[in-house]
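Can't paste images in this forum, so I'm doing it all in text. The chain is below; anyone willing to post the predicted structure tokens underneath?
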Amino acid sequence: MEARIEGSYIFEYSSPVGLLTISSDGERITGLWIKGQKYFAAALAPQNTVMGARGLPVFESAKEWLDTYFGGKNPAFTPQLAPRGSPFRQAVWEILRGIPYGDAIAYGDIAKTLALQPGKEKMSARAVGGAVSHNPISIMIPCHRVIGADGSLTGYAGGIGIKSKLLVLEQVDMKLMKRRRFL
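Text version of the structure:
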């Protein structure tokens, strides 16, 4: 199902973790939410819904990416993404995009990386957690790959059960993550 909402197009994709709602500006993915997740479609207004846009190339690309991903393989490409958020959130989401398929890092690692930027002495892992939880493009911007400092599964807007399923799909060795020392 597709719809246009205030300059955005919507596409629904049935996945092994539930119905996904994907939004686009017509050229780039602007949102991807798992039905029922916290902050579900937060950037979209449900009024003025108009059906249309079937076969939009960006949605075809997203569908191919998701088919590959849920088929248990690392997609060799990523559709163009355009998440909307503050400069701080954008910086966090850019780090998330660099987490390799099948790997995970701790919230504190992201905070340490951000603190290396000019003008910052340190960064709060809690602030990073807030930005991670507001990631508007779940799965493609892999917020599920962020774990606690002790290797535990903590916080995920889609729920810990879905986070676990995504990490299992990627064959992340959580026993190794619990023993691993982060930055």
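Confidence is low (pLDDT under 50) at residues 1-6, 47-52. The CA atoms of residues 149 and 181 lie 8 Å apart.
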